[in-house]
UniProtKB/TrEMBL annotation:
This is N-acetyl-gamma-glutamyl-phosphate reductase. The gene is argC. It comes from Luteococcus sanguinis. Belongs to the NAGSA dehydrogenase family. Type 1 subfamily. The active site is at C146. GO terms for molecular function: N-acetyl-gamma-glutamyl-phosphate reductase activity.
Amino acid sequence: MTFSVAVAGCTGYAGGEVLRLLLGHPEVSIGNLTAGSSAGTHLGQHQPHLVPLADREVLETTAENLAGHDIVFLALPHGTSGAVAALLPDEVLVVDCGADFRLADPQMWLKYYKSEHAGTWPYGLPELPGQRETLASTRRIAVPGCYPTTGTLALLPALTAGLVTGRDVVVAAASGSSGAGKGLKPNLLGAELFGSASAYGVGGVHRHTPELLQNFTRLGADAPTVSFTPLLVPMSRGILAVVTAPVVDGVTEADVRAAYEQAYADEPFVHVLPAGQWPQSQHVVGSNAVHVNATLDPDVGRIIAIATLDNLCKGTAGGAIQSMNLALGLPEGTGLTSIGVAP
Ligand SMILES: NC(=O)C1=CN([C@@H]2O[C@H](COP(=O)(O)OP(=O)(O)OC[C@H]3O[C@@H](n4cnc5c(N)ncnc54)[C@H](OP(=O)(O)O)[C@@H]3O)[C@@H](O)[C@H]2O)C=CC1
Ligand SMILES: CC(=O)N[C@@H](CCC(=O)OP(=O)(O)O)C(=O)O
């Protein structure tokens, strides 16, 4: 049996990557494709790389067009998914790539998104303790933001092993421009982007800050604090996060090494690099892999953890399909690869 899938937001970067991966997934068949103002056009005009789907008509995003499928992916702008999801039957597996259902605290939603909170769904990060069991029995999945996935997986072993408390965490993460979606933003025009690196969302205002804190709490931190600064760098895909945090007294380099190797020993997509080798975004492009490494800076008593992933793959569509597989009872890695493209 194959599962039929509809994709809303098929003309965007996230929707396009969902479709690229679904085309290689042996257990699904691709049904209706919908978007917003592009309705009535053909997918090939927007996603020329998805050749087998080039002649598909892009439909309007309505309940009727999304009905009759086993699975619906929503790859729509923030604040759009809630209304669409409300129209879908409970038995349909709905996977939201947007932020609408990620946060548990409505006050945090209001503070960072400045709109009404749509609700909270199971979080699509299987690497969190106990999360595979939760995902296995759900019909609603909130796919994490790309920075929170990277920052959380960078610090997870240190938090779960009790090497850090989760206070005074600093995350600086550089993203490729596809993270911003297809819509042009002033700081993303070609002349400003290429040949230049820049910071944005500075001063604790980026909406992924509460998502990082929510994840750190989930990993055992008591009242965590984080200073998160996103950076835009001239590459199309990829995120590289540098995460530092004070270690508790007595933690050694050997403790750090052991914590990372143990935490990820059985993870299919998270790879701890050999000691002294540091993640590079190029190595995970096109794959669902996360490359991680960590060390101790003894002079300042801080752990330095570095992680990289492809923002459109493990950071969005790949992570979404990994969680989908769990919810469908399929092997978790179906249709996904941990092998990147290099150089
Ligand atoms: N890019 C990334 O790395 C990541 C993105 N995400 C999330 O995925 C979602 C999509 O992001 P992304 O693909 O980057 O964005 P894009 O701007 O590239 O694509 C947006 C998509 O939504 C459609 N759309 C826009 N407005 C509406 C509407 N009112 N009704 C129906 N469809 C609409 C667009 O269709 P049309 O062509 O008709 O305008 C397009 O298909 C966002 O919530 C984003 O946060 C999550 C993690 C990472
Ligand atoms: C470079 C860039 O602009 N990145 C996006 C993050 C994209 C993402 O993963 O997050 P959401 O799903 O929450 O949109 C940003 O900072 O808004």
